[in-house]
Design a protein that fits this description.
Layout lengths: L9 H4 L8 H5 L2 H25 L21 H5 L2 H4 L8 H16 L6 H35 L5 H10 L1 H6 L5 H20 L1 H10 L1 H31 L5 H14 L1 H41 L1 H15 L10 H45 L11
Amino acid sequence: MTDTIRRISWRDLFPWLILLRTFRIAISPPLLALATAAVLIAPLGWRLAGLVFQPKFESGTTNLPVYQAAGENSFIAQWTPPAVREYLPGAQTAFLEAYQQLAEPLARLFRMRITLREMAYYAFGFLWTLALWSFPGAVISRHAVVSLAAESPPGIVETARFAARRWHWYVLAPLYPLVPVLIVALGIAILGLPIQFAPGAGSILAVLAWIFVAIASLGVLWLFGGLLFGFPLMWPTISAERDGDAFEAFSRSYSYVYGKPLHYFFYVVVAALFGALCWAVVSGAATLLQEFGFWALAWGGTAAKVEPLRFAALQFALGLPAPPNQGWAFSLGTVLIGLVLCVIHGVVAGFRFTYFFTVASAIYLLLRQDVDEKEMDEVFIST
């Protein structure tokens, strides 16, 4: 007697299919609202940093907002090896765009040609970004791990309370490996002080101690590499585990990154490809939402009259100079329409982060199953 296969459990055969469930979670209105608020607030901290430190950049401009650095201007993108880029989508993807914006301030601190004022500017921006996104990231990752594990979304108030109680761990987790990195850097910096006053003798002293510098740099490479690739897993760790804290986030993320690097890379590639599709859907919907109103308005007001209004409103929404000599009524109208467009653009930008934290939570559950052999539904539920 032969057995008949009546149903195939694709989730058991291909656990990574859980990544395809992240879009539905990422477009949850409460999560999008929270991420949109963070996106709209983020420039304030960078503006404050620019006013305080006024760094001079290569282009000679001041107050360059790092949070807008992406694509070709991103240090993270420039550091990505070409062999890795071959596997990643060439189009914009929500996962990598959000990753770059979160990691960019820290990456810019590790430049050789950087002044003290620039270092203070980026350090302030990094801490501001970390403090600002810790709460939305905590709420989103907690909502995601519970939804993916229990298949029933938790209440947003309950999730926010959980995130608030552990907020300090979300902030401290990425800083945990940076403390020894900073100590090593200060030690090597002291070794370099004689070079300022006596380059010859200082260089000889540095050469004699270089073997110790190389050994210390190996430790820094392990710490910094684990942080660079593992920080997306830190917040899901705190969100999923009963005793989740900064140390557990540090240990689990490093264990998974170095324990299953090929698995991690595969999941990132799938998340990036799926994120490109999701980004196309969300950005396309936002464009339709934005342009339909102007298109319909042109029926009554004619395209020649509506086009200047559309251009001025978009200029305002993007923070660009408004066209001159428009009159107070026209200017007021463009500002009001521009504010609506700002909200639309903010929601689209917020989706990058809801998708990033959601898919990072899914990748964490997958790697935890690969390394620790824990089932995906083994998530701390009680608050």
